[in-house]
Amino acid sequence: MTELRRDPVLGTRVHIVRRRKDRPNLPNTGCPFCVGGLEAPEPYDVRWFPNRWPAMDGERCEVVLYTPDHDATFWSLGDDGARKVVDLWADRTAALGARDDVRYVLVFENRGADVGATISHPHGQIYAYDHVPERQEQRVPWRPDPDPGERLVAERDGWAAWVPYAPMFPISIELAPRRHLVDLPAMGDTDRAALAGLLVDVLGRLDRLWGRPLPYMLWLNQHPDGWFNVEIVSPWRQPGVMRFIAAAEVASTEYFNEVVPEDLAATLRDL
Predict the structure, then answer these.
(1) Which of 109, 111, 118 has the alpha carbon at shortest distance from 31?
(2) Closest Cα partner for 19 from 53, 62, 51?
(3) Rounded-to-integer distance, Cα 128 and Cα 64, Å
(4) Which domains does the chain possess?
(5) What distance in Å separates the CA atoms of residue 269 and residue 271, rounded to the nearest whole number?
């Protein structure tokens, strides 16, 4: 089963997950997320189910399917399709967050083999922690940049997307509402629609950046004392060229980025 350990010097939490070393790397036959597959026996628009290879015990890990279309992307779902995903994210956040043994619900997506995705069918995951992860705790004082200036990428109905001031990854985008919202369940119809539409806009720009699907990691920061926001990062520094975290960066937790945030934002705005 899963064992949570803490580094005695740095305090870093490490989940030792014995079962996951035996999980399959790729499906043996067909896609399990397509209609009729192992995880989607019946037709669906969006769907969630428990992860067969959970990283934590106690039914804390779920998979979210965005669409039955194997070759779709998040942005190709359009505003209406993306809104269905946002609503499902919100429903699962509320359901998991209501559990007595859950203190933090993390919604995230790994897209593309370069960031570890083993199945290309559009999907994300949800982890329900029995504690608040340290990075999310540290971000509680975070507030959206009131004036990103040249780093602004796009806006939609009270929401904005911009390139962070000092990003660790070569491609990095933040999305947030201009007014204070703490999590998905707190959002009404207008804000959910704006979030869905802005995600479609930004992810579409990222795929057009180099004219090919961009591998990315996406996650939602939501905390009762925080400010809801979305982070999207990619390890590509050029088309198909990975930016690897090097020894000096791992050792010092100080990072070196060759992509100028203002230049990236200008390129994405033009797209």
Answers:
(1) 118
(2) 53
(3) 14
(4) 2-270 (3.30.428.10)
(5) 5
Q: How far is CA 36 from CA 24, 62, 254, in A?
A: 19, 19, 47
Cβ atoms within 10 Å, residue 160: 19
Q: Per residue of the chain (271 residues), what is the pLDDT tens digit? A: 789 999 999 999 999 998 766 666 666 678 999 999 999 999 999 999 999 999 999 999 999 999 999 999 999 999 999 999 999 999 999 999 999 999 999 999 999 999 999 899 999 999 999 999 999 999 999 999 999 999 999 999 999 999 999 999 999 999 999 999 999 999 999 999 999 999 999 999 999 999 999 999 999 999 999 999 999 999 999 999 999 999 999 999 999 999 999 999 999 999 9
State which H helix or E strand residue 153 sits in.
Answer: strand 152-156
Question: Of the residues 15, 70, 121, 123, which is catalytic?
Answer: 123
123 tagged catalytic: yes
Q: Which amino acid is at 123?
A: H
Q: Which residues contact 254 (CB under 8 A, 6 or more apart)?
A: 248
CA distances from 206 to 51, 79, 173, 234, 267 (A): 28, 17, 10, 9, 10
Place of tokens 């429903």: 91
